Predict the 3D structure of the following.
Amino acid sequence: MRRRRLLGVLLVALVVAVTAWLATGGVDQIRDLLPEEAEAAPQPGDGAVPAEGASLALVTVDDTGASARRLMVLATDEERGAATALLVPTATVADIPGHGTFTLAEAHGLGGADLTRLSLGNLLGVSLDGVAAIDPAGWEQVLGEAGPLEVTTPRALVDADGEVVAEAGTSVLEGAALARYLTSVLPGEGELEALPRVQQVLAGLLDAVAEDPDLVDRLLALEAVDGTPTVATSDPALFAELLRGLATARAEERFTAVTLPVEPLGSGAEAGYRVDAARAADVVAEQLPGALPDGEATGARDVQILNGNGVPRIGLEVTERLSGGGYRVVLSGNADRFTYDTTRIVLHDSSPEQLQVGRDVQRRLGVGELELAATPGSVVDITIVVGADFPPAG
């Protein structure tokens, strides 16, 4: 009897101690508090067969290289035998990893085409395999190689200098005129209104590649006046594969061009856009399944990244490591101090499913201690406070 009473007292004391520990504020470690069954739960993606395909962000930059003027995702999906061009308004506001909230157009000026790729993938919840960038002068070369293309516009297009970009109706344009048709920002025209021009030019280019597949090799061999490649790409082979794949799919009526669903932030052509999250998720699931993370996500994955080690742009590398896992960085900034020695992966939900997500983050980062927020509820599911142990040595 005395032994049972003593055990009861010890159990009550333990419960009180744990309750007090969880209520101390801040964040608390949970690695040893969860049941063993949670340890054995399958990792996201276990047993799943990923969709096969390839994807690339194609960025049209302005004359100065300071911002993106046009943006699209090119993707093929071998399982469905389909190909997609997702047209993305560059005035769409997103969290730019390591920088904060800007438009996708501004992402290029902050970190070049690769930051644009990473920001776009983060916004869509996909992993993009590569990126290619072309400026207006480069498009003049590319479209000059492709030859004359037929375009149609319901009204005459006139630029800010009063120069006619295209007459109303159907026109045949080539070279510089076609590049201007693609890249011009016209007075009073919202970006959504300009995207049909992008779609027409892309369709014409794909038709030219379908007729002459060697055209892609000639495009990749083009050089700017300074000797740099006209098509600046992280992976020329990927660019060639995708362009030929999209051309074949279009010729066989397996190609789809779709605009990312967005909503205006205000009135006027310069107001900018925000993603319509629900509709965008449907478009991505239907059109870009090969770029989605492997397997089913078993927990929520909206992420906040806080710089706790003082290394500039460290959030960019964290986002890169999370790429492909279905994570979406929705907030980033500085922690309360830059002296964190250990990276903290803070969960705002103690469910076994969320623990598995936390362990997946830990695996992808290569460092970090899992912790539980003492106060549940947050606009994000995971907060990563980056410490001095990141990036891991070696």
Q: What stands out?
A: The longest strand covers residues 68-77. The CA atoms of residues 11 and 17 lie 10 Å apart.
